[in-house]
UniProtKB/TrEMBL annotation:
SUPFAM superfamilies: lambda repressor-like DNA-binding domains. InterPro entries: Cro/C1-type_HTH, Lambda_DNA-bd_dom_sf. Keywords: DNA-binding. GO terms for molecular function: DNA binding. Transmembrane segments: none annotated. Pfam families: HTH_3. Residues 19-73 form the HTH cro/C1-type domain. It comes from the Bacteria. PANTHER family: DNA-BIDING PHAGE PROTEIN, TRACRIPTIONAL REGULATORY PROTEIN-RELATED-RELATED. This is Helix-turn-helix domain-containing protein.
């Protein structure tokens, strides 16, 4: 009772915007970031503008490269406790997998 309904919608445009913001804060070019991710600069641009989706595996790689939490990229949660947000919990990963599976099944 009183539990919030599970929201399985993923806003790829918001995720892309957060990726771009963090990339720019770290002064990393699109070309450099794309190279580290093993994708083309065009593909990264499409992700950043919400024109392409992104897999959980790719999201995790982005988190490593941009030194940001998965929670921040997916939900936009601000970092208030560095230790709390620097580690991805199993619950977060399971939640994101469920969201991604819901999108892929449609």
């Amino acid at each position: 009772m009183g539990r919030k309904a599970f929201d399985n919608s993923i806003d790829y445009k918001e995720i892309g915007t957060r990726i771009r913001i963090m990339r720019l804060k770290l002064a990393v070019s699109q070309t450099e970031c794309a190279s580290k991710l093993g994708i083309s600069q065009t593909h990264l641009s499409n992700i950043e503008h919400g024109r392409s989706g992104i897999t959980l595996q790719m999201l995790c790689r982005v988190c490593d490269i941009l030194q940001v939490s998965l929670d921040y990229l997916v939900r936009g949660a601000e970092k208030t406790d560095e230790k709390k947000h620097s580690e991805i919990t199993i619950d977060e990963v399971v939640r994101v997998i469920k969201m991604l599976k819901g999108i892929e099944e449609k």
